[in-house]
Amino acid sequence: MAVTPEPGESGEPGKGKPFKLLGILDVENIPCSRDSVLYGSLGSVVAGLGHFLLTSRIRRSCDVGIGGFIVVTLGYWFHCRYNYAKLRIQERMARDGIKNKILYESTHLDPDRKQTNSNSSH
What we know:
By secondary structure, the chain is mainly alpha-helical. It contains three helices and two strands; from the N terminus they run E-E-H-H-H. The protein has helices at residues 33-55, 58-104, 111-120, and strands at residues 20-21, 25-26. The chain is elongated and about 75 Å long.
C-alpha cells in the first residue's frame, strides 16, 4: 500500500507550512521580512543590554530594547524595500530594452541600423 501525502504536506523536506511570525507576517515569502526581523532582534539585544550596562535599570532597559527592535526593524525594512523596488525597476527596464531590441532588430525601426546607414552614406 502506498501512502499518499496529505494536501498540506509535500514530499520535499522543508516545504511544509510557511513560517508566520505572530500569525500574520510570512517571513519566507515576503521579501526583506526575514532580514528585518533578524536585524531588529539583534538591535533589541544590543540596545537593551547596552542600556542595562550603562544604567542598571532593568525595566527601562527592557523598554529601550523594545524600542530598539522597532526602530531597527522598521529602518532596515524601509531600506531593504527601497533597494528591492529599485532593483525591480532596473530589471523591468532591462527586460523592456531586450524585448525592444529583439522586436526591432533588422527592421527599418532599428536605431543601430539608422546610425550605420547614415554614417556609410557620407
